Amino acid sequence: MDLPFSRAEFFDVFAAYNTAWWPAAIALWAVSLGLVIRAFGAGGPPHRALSALLAVHWTWSALAYHAAYFSRINPAAWIFAALFLVQAGIFVWLGMVHDRLRFSTGRSARHVAAGALIAYALAYPLINAALGHAYPRAPTFGVPCPTAIFTVGLLLASSPPRWDVSVIPILWSAIGGSAAVLLGVRADLALPVAGALLVVRLLAGHRGHEWAPNQG
Length: 216
Description:
Elements: H1 7-39, H2 47-67, H3 77-97, E1 102-103, H4 109-122, H5 124-130, H6 144-156, E2 158-159, H7 167-182, H8 190-206
Antiparallel strand pairs: 1-2
Helix pairs in contact: 1-2, 2-3, 2-6, 4-6, 6-7, 6-8, 7-8
């Protein structure tokens, strides 16, 4: 596949993004970690707050990454930005306005997978560093691919399974996952795995059962 930009230009975008936005990226990471810790605490998941967090993630990726930086080297970034804003709107409408996204904790296979993906997304900058991507020319927390991984993790822990909130994350798992092969971002190999897990969750949930061995 021929891309409209070079590998060097791709990582230059991250250098510009990270240099400009690193305080906001750290703040987003800290807030995300705090809400995840609260979600797994004794009080139970804060449903609307988690939906709001996901809306912020997708809005941030749309505007601060796709529109502001990636569009400089790839015209398709404007389409990606629009899709990400649509996804943010879905979280606002379903999760915040109507409170139809309910998150849970448990020991079922889907909850274990959810926790693993959430932890992976939070560790994403360190994983990239370990794989040889030197900061600031490296993907970090808050850009589209870890946003999608983080989102799939939370959606795996949500009930009931909903296609309307899952289609764009699944689509991005395929689009963004191509970077793992085409651009050498091996941390993004988790993206197609995450997308496949979410499809399995949707199909299994609509058949009226959860993943074996435990119910939840």
